[in-house]
Design a protein that fits this description.
2% strand; mainly alpha; 11 helices; 2 domains; single chain; 333 residues; 2 strands
Length: 333
């Protein structure tokens, strides 16, 4: 049998088999590191929750001692992922400039407030950590790159980076969808602004009425105009509220409307005439964009026609001819 002590067996090769999975010593090292990171994250979350629980127990003791006397409890306890995002956002690795950039991207997607920032950062961290063990399980299940541990480590690193970037990709998709909704509702909003201006309403009331009128047909445009009307009542300079709306949306057409409104405020130009010209230009741009999309349809339909319709057509046309040739060859002595 030879020297088969447990130490020699472990030093030569350590393999644990579970179904199709085979864990080498390097794989076990990766598992141990992943488990250690998960336990450290769980311990940090438990510490955060434990501080909150002690605070709540102290408040309950004070209320019981005061014979049901109500005490202010402050803000409600946030979910664990928001607490995790808040803790990470307060670190130096995420600077103020990065926070402002993320807040601007969230505002462009229709998500305002620091609570959404905490949720975004927590989502980036959780998906980055979660995809590492999932990717490792997939690699072991498929037995990929068994002889290349460095390549396995590179794939796990790529999975972690992809998990960190995945919430940003989703945020960009939400931002693009919201910008498309706002852009589709801008012509109607501009027409309503022209009607309100010709009716003699002030700019504040006109924007407020447009936000109220488009609440059902274009809710995203209505939200922006309603928020702008509220800011114009609070901010000392009304043009700043309009600039905030243009920065939140990030659309060229909306910025043109904002520039026209600011010029009307500063120079006293006719609001209805300027908006009417702008509405005509916007309608022309929309028509040109639709014509461009229609002109691209034949090019986009060429490949599906060649891949699906043309083979079927050739089969229908050529099959009788082939059968006729086969019959002629069979009848020839």
């Amino acid at each position: 049998m030879g020297d088969a002590s447990p130490a020699n067996i472990l030093s030569d090769h350590l393999v644990v088999r579970l179904g199709r999975l085979a864990f080498s010593s390097l794989d076990l090292g990766v598992v141990i590191v992943a488990v250690a990171v998960a336990l450290a994250s769980a311990f940090a979350l438990w510490r955060i929750g434990d501080r909150e629980d002690r605070h709540k127990r102290l408040l309950r003791a004070l209320r019981s001692h005061a014979h049901r006397r109500s005490y202010p409890t402050g803000t409600q306890r946030q979910p664990w992922y928001l607490q995790l995002g808040t803790q990470i956002a307060s670190m130096r690795i995420i600077g103020v400039a990065k926070q402002q950039s993320l807040l601007a991207a969230l505002a462009a997607a229709g998500l305002r407030g620091h609570g959404h920032l905490s949720a975004l950062i927590a989502g980036k961290v959780c998906t980055g950590i979660l995809l590492v063990p999932l990717g490792w399980l997939f690699i072991e299940w498929q037995r990929l790159f068994v002889a290349w541990p460095v390549l396995r480590l590179a794939l796990l690193t790529a999975a972690c980076i992809f998990g960190w970037r995945l919430p940003d990709i989703i945020l960009r998709r939400l931002k693009a969808r919201r910008q498309l909704q706002i852009e589709n509702g801008l012509p109607d909003a501009l027409d309503l602004l022209v009607i309100c201006a010709e009716a003699g309403l002030s700019l504040d009331h006109a924007i407020e009425n447009v936000g109220r009128a488009l609440r059902r047909s274009s809710p995203e445009v209505a939200k922006e105009f309603t928020a702008t009307a509220a800011e114009m009542l609070v901010l000392p300079v009304r043009s700043r509220a309009l600039e905030n709306m243009a920065e939140r949306a990030g659309l060229a057409n909306l910025r043109s409307i904002v520039v026209t409104l600011i010029q009307s405020i500063e120079f006293g130009t006719s609001l209805s005439a300027s908006l009417r010209v702008l509405a005509t230009e916007m309608r022309a741009k929309s028509l040109a964009r639709f014509e461009e999309r229609a002109a691209r349809l034949p090019v986009l339909l060429t490949l599906p026609l060649m891949a699906f319709v043309l083979p079927s057509l050739m089969l229908v046309i050529g099959t009788p001819l082939v059968l006729h040739i086969v019959d002629m060859l069979a009848a020839t002595p």
